[in-house]
Write a structure and sequence with these properties.
Strands 11-3-2-15-21 form a five-stranded parallel beta sheet, covered by helices on one side. A five-stranded antiparallel beta sheet has the order 17-18-19-16-20. The chain has three domains: 177 residues, 3-Layer(bba) Sandwich (FAD/NAD(P)-binding domain); 118 residues, Guanine Nucleotide Dissociation Inhibitor, domain 1 (Orthogonal Bundle), CATH 1.10.405; 95 residues, Protoporphyrinogen oxidase, mitochondrial, domain 2 (Polyamine Oxidase, Chain A, domain 2, Alpha-Beta Complex), CATH 3.90.660.20. It contains 14 helices and 21 strands. Helix 6 crosses helix 8. It is 32% helix and 22% strand. Strand 2, helix 1 and strand 3 form a beta-alpha-beta unit.
């Protein structure tokens, strides 16, 4: 058996954030990932036909992702993202009308109000209603009970047109669920942070390379460069003895002795870390296993020419709500990614059907796509892309658990945010701090033998 100060199970953003923070503090860290590649739900692979790097799903960051940007600085990739000077969102509605929401760099929440008031996609009377949200956002009040996003928006005077063109696309992208299903609490927190006090909080931050090259591979190199280790393709089990963490066992390899484990796995994988969850964890494991999931579908299209004139465009009123241009974002070939969040109604379709829907919706919105030749297409499903935010779901757990030395990380833990990279990184940093504090305490000594 080898030894480590801490073992992190799971090499997604949460696990890598935790591991790099611990390694940066001078601790010996071992990261174990059950899947063949690191990255969790944020990784890239080379397309077998074109040879281009393709992310498993398009991810957008914002300037209010402060801990994610700190993480990128730590691993040396802060220069691999492109930051907009202010929030600018081009839209093409279901009738084919194009508009652009441009929020100027003003103090919060003036930038949102100024952007919406100048946006001619909806009538002026509906635009004026955005002012009614400012007191609700500034008050810090929490939406009531199981109130849905739509109910909360309607209660605060937001008209149907503004909801359809602005709030619904933003909410579905952030929450990965219908605004008639997702509760409003997390959405309100997203909006508060997005239009927060920082001058760049609302700025869009787009990875200028693949997710693996920005978020994952440099983190693995960072850990290795500080004496740590990352092992992929190896499921792990947590070893518990006398009510404490003693290490992890690894399938097909020797185990790792440690008194600190961070479980940075998805909610649905927590139970698999134990042959039988110890008593202090049974309620947490039961709740995690009962937490619902929501899917995302991404269709990638390679054309023989440029089709978009912007890095991304919103497509409200369609199944695929956003289209991203990899060439304008990351310098790739003419490769577009169309994203359907909250994809419950199409995730079971065959690839050809998904590609056909995406292409037809693109051509209806972007005339240039009709004249372009499609050279290659693929579809990617993430059936459990995010945890559910419906009313009645189990409560999300915190970092600490009832088992000494065992901590939780993951976007599904209680960060107050939906399943975003920022939520994952926040959880990883919290777990790293808790683990470091645990390690700073003296290790309990075994009881002395009884003399009789």
């Amino acid at each position: 058996m080898t030894a480590a100060d801490a073992v992190v199970i799971g090499a997604g953003c949460a696990g890598l954030a935790a591991a790099t923070a611990l390694a940066d503090a001078g601790l010996r860290v071992a990261v174990v990932e059950a899947r063949p590649v690191a990255g969790g739900r944020t990784f890239a692979t080379r397309d077998r036909v074109t040879g281009t790097w393709v992310d498993n799903g398009q991810h957008v960051l914002f300037g209010c992702y402060h801990e994610t940007l700190d993480y990128l600085t730590r691993i040396g990739t802060r220069d691999r993202v492109t930051v907009q000077s202010s929030l600018t969102v081009p839209m093409i509605d279901a009738a084919g009308r194009r508009s652009e929401l441009r929020c100027p760099p003003l103090p919060s929440p003036l930038q949102l109000a100024a952007g919406v008031l100048a946006w001619d996609a909806v009538p002026l009377g509906e635009r004026l209603a955005v002012r009614k949200l400012a007191p609700a956002l500034a008050s810090g009040a929490t939406p009531s009970g199981g109130e849905t996003v739509r109910q909360w928006l309607t209660r605060h005077g937001q008209a149907d047109g503004l909801i359809a063109l602005l709030w619904e696309p933003l909410a579905v992208a952030a929450l990965n669920q219908s605004i008639d299903d997702a509760t409003a609490t997390t959405f309100v927190e997203v909006v508060r942070r997005l239009f927060g006090p920082g001058p760049d909080d609302a700025a869009l931050v787009l990875p200028a390379a693949s997710l693996s090259h920005v978020l994952v591979d440099p983190a693995m190199a960072f850990i290795a460069g500080r004496g740590g280790d990352v092992t992929c393709g190896t499921p792990a089990r947590v070893l518990v003895d006398d009510g404490r963490v003693r290490g992890v066992s690894l399938r097909g390899a020797s185990g790792i002795e440690t008194r600190t484990v961070i479980a940075a796995v998805p909610w649905h994988a927590l139970a698999a870390l134990f042959d039988e969850p110890p008593a202090p964890l049974q309620d947490v494991v039961r709740a995690a296993s009962a937490l619902g999931s929501a899917p995302i579908v991404t269709v990638h299209l390679w054309f023989d020419r440029d089709v978009l004139d912007a890095p991304f465009v919103g497509l409200p009123g369609r199944r695929f709500q956003w289209v991203f241009d990899a060439r304008r974002i990351a310098g790739e070939a003419a490769h577009l990614s169309l994203v359907c969040s909250g994809a419950d109604d199409i995730v079971a379709l065959e690839n050809d059907a998904l590609i056909d829907i995406a292409r037809r919706e693109l051509e209806a919105a972007v005339p240039a796509a009709r004249a372009a030749t499609l050279r290659r297409a693929s579809a990617v499903r993430e059936r459990r892309a995010t945890f559910s935010l419906r009313a009645g779901e189990p409560r999300r757990p915190g970092t600490a658990t009832g088992l000494p030395g065992f901590f939780l990380a993951g976007d599904w833990t209680d960060t107050g945010l939906p399943a975003t990279i920022e939520s994952a990184v926040i959880s990883g940093h919290r777990a790293a701090r808790a683990a470091a504090e645990h390690l700073a305490r003296p290790s309990p000594q075994p009881p002395a033998p009884s003399l009789r």
